[in-house]
Amino acid sequence: MWHDVRALNATASFLTAVTVLAALISGVWWLSQRPMFSLGSVTVESMYGIELKHVNELTVRNGVLGKIRGNFFTADLEQVRATFETVPWVRRATVRREWPNALVVEVEEHEALGTWGEDGRLLSVKGDVFTANVAETEDEQALPAFDGPVGSEKEVLARFNELRTAFAQVELVPQELSLSNRYAWTVKLDNGMSVALGREQDRNTLRKRVQRLVGVYPQLVARLQEGRIDTIDMRYPNGLALSSAALTVPLDATKPVKAAKKPKESTKPATPNKTTKQI
Q1: Is 92 inside any structural domain?
Q2: Do 152 and 225 belong to one domain?
Q3: pTM here?
Q4: How far is CA 138 from CA 61, 123, 128, 173, 178, in A?
Q5: How much is the pLDDT for 248?
Q6: Would you state the torsion angle of the CA atoms of residues 132, 186, 184, 161, taken in this order, to the nearest 10 degrees?
Q7: How far is CA 71 from CA 40, 60, 78, 101, 261, in A?
Q8: Which domain holds residue 73?
Q9: With 146 labelled, which of 67, 134, 199, 276 sits at a CA distance of 20 to 30 A?
Q10: Model confidence over 104-139: pLDDT tens digits?
Q11: Are the beta carbons of 178 and 186 closer than 8 angstroms?
């Protein structure tokens, strides 16, 4: 080998290239560690140009900056993104570098629609459940309350929007909507009335039951003192059952009340000392 000039030249060239490459890598590493590339700022912007309501400089300084490791070159952008998405009210975040020592984070905030469950979480208008301070919501009125099995959040949201539209015909607003573990629906309205809608046999079950209630509701109010109804059970196939603190007249003054066929779902007994009628 020592007498092979071509082999010696090739070996020398290889060693020289390795040495130069190692020097370049060392130089780049040394340069990247200079103070001028230490992160000088992290700018938070709205992802869609909408003013941020809950994520501010104080939030970033207290909850995020201390968790960011590295400098302009070495900071893990995926780790920074994940860190921002743990901040209350942040739904989604993206991160990019800005020469020479800054990071720019674009944030999409949650927009709260109501509370979820009994543990203080919130439901967003997009059907996401998240944890944040309920007192930070901007709505001065009490938020609607929602509940349901894990994974049913978007279904509950969709049903709430449908019910809100339907009950608007009789100037009522849903305030609570719950889906039981047996997938039975119950809605409470802003007049204090609770409506048992039951389980869905098909896609139109709830819609038909709500339409039936909306159609007869003005008549029920007219026959009841001050229109005060405590509960309505819509699980009957051809009628309904209601309970009220006081009934002014029979629901049908000329004909006996016909008992409706009992629903498949079990019903709760009427509140003691209250009158219950079936239509």
Answers
A1: yes
A2: yes
A3: 0.75
A4: 23, 14, 18, 19, 24
A5: 40
A6: -60
A7: 9, 17, 14, 7, 72
A8: 36-109
A9: 276
A10: 999 999 999 999 999 889 999 999 999 998 888 876
A11: yes
Whole-angstrom distance, CA of residue 234 vs CA of residue 210 = 8
pLDDT at 17: 73
Domain identity same for 126 and 235:
yes
* Spatial CA neighbour of 163 closest among 173, 154, 153: 173
Both structure tokens of 251:
């629901």
CA distance 38 to 264: 68
Positions of the chain with pLDDT under 50: 31-32, 34, 248-262, 266-279
Verify that 132 and 234 share a domain, yes or no.
yes
> Based on the structure, what is the number of domains in the chain?
2
Are 191 and 89 found together in one domain?
no
